[in-house]
Each structure stands twice: as C-alpha cells, then as structure tokens.
Amino acid sequence: MQTNITYSSFVAIGDSFTEGMSDELPDGTYRGWADLLAGRLAARDPGFRYANLAVRGKLIGQIVEEQTGPAAAMGADLVTLVGGLNDVLRPKCDVGRVCELLGEAAERLAPTCKRLVLMRSPGRRGPVFERFLPRIEQLFSFIDELGARHDATVVDVYASEPVGDPRMWAEDRLHLNAEGHRRVAEAVWQALGYEPEEDWNAPLPPAVPVGWLSRRTSDVRFARQHLGPWIGRRLTGRSSGDGRPPKRAELLPYEG
Known about the structure:
By secondary structure, the chain is α/β, with parallel strands linked by helices. The chain has a single domain (7-251), classed as 3-Layer(aba) Sandwich (Rossmann fold). The chain has ten helices and six strands, in the order E-H-H-E-H-E-H-H-E-H-H-E-H-H-H-E. It has a six-stranded mixed beta sheet with strand order 5-4-3-1-2-6, sandwiched between helices. Helix 2 packs across helix 9. The protein is globular, with a radius of gyration of 18 Å.
C-alpha cells in the first residue's frame, strides 16, 4: 500500500453519478462520492483544488464534447472519468460507439494528468438491471482494456454485491444514497493507494422482509414520482440536465 502519494488538484467529469445524486444535503444540494474524495484529499494538502464538471443526464457524447476539453485544459493531477451507463440503459444503443467515445475521452485526458481513474460503476440489482447486462458487461470489458492502454486506475464497484443491494440506492432506484456514495468514495480512495479507513465492500446485514402491500405501495410511488417523468423525458428528447451548469466549473481551492 502506497502512503506517500499526494494530489494537489482533482477534476471529476461525468453524469449524475459523479454529480452526487442522490446524496442530498440539508440545503437540497448533492454531495456524492467525488466531493467526499475531494474532502479527504484536501485534508492532506492545504492548497488542494477541485472541480466537478459532471451534469446529470449526460450521455457519453455530451461528456466528450462539453467536459473533456475544459478538464484537460485544467491540467489537474487527478482526473476521474465515469460515463456511458446512461447510454447503455436506453432502449436503443450502439455500445461500440459508446466505447469509441469513451476511448476518445481517455485519449484526451490521460496525457494531461498524473493519474486517470476509470470506473466499472455500480448498478442496482434487479430485473431492469439484469435486462441490460450484456451491454453493461461489454462496456466494462472495454473500460478494463482502456485502463491497461493508458495505465489508468480502474475501480471495480460493479462487482460489489453490497453496493448493488437496493438498500444502497435512493427511492428513484437510479442513484446511490448517502451510504452508497460513501462506499464508492472509500473504494476510489483505496484504489489510489491510500490506507483503508474501512471495508467499503463489507457485507450488509440480512434484509428485513418487506410485506406485499409495502412493496406495491413503494412501486406505485416510484412509478408516479420517478419512472413516469423519466419516460416522459425519453419520449420528448429532454434530459434532466438540460440547461444545468457543471457542479463546480472551475478548479478552485476546496472548501468543505
């Protein structure tokens, strides 16, 4: 385990996962694994700077077009690139093209930083997730190849059963809750070579059985509050990130 690593700057790019949904703070903003990681890194370097260009709903083509150029220009020590899952979870998707675009992003970013981090990102276990498994595994196999090509760190959170457990996910069933984001932050922290603070992949206690009525009530609430609006956006070609600026558009000193 390496203990003398220092990163003085960090840029995160991606979609809602990196933006931090749904690790909601009291003021209604989102924190998430990238912010948590930035906080830990800042504690080791008083001059630490952090930018988070992620925007919810972004597809890999939009990430490449809108985020990789500004991120590369910042010249940060550490860059995390997580994207493509929004694409492969759509009804129609050219996975080969998604991989090409992800490769373009890595090609642009790797020469500009000391350490590029890629991720086999997590998914909530269930029938919807299982339906898209062939696409997801094709994408993640390419991410492994990309990591080897660019000597990048690949963090495998996808393989974690505890992080895929529904209890780690918010009510919308698309985004991690606070505990899920905390575990991802620890996983990246350890992958970067820092001493573990906990076992991010520790098993969860046995789940308490939920009655039929409670499950159906939860399903109805999910469909009304989350699934319906999501389908509406797909049908009209809109995105939850339309018109939304990056979370932290400039590489500035971190303030927790």
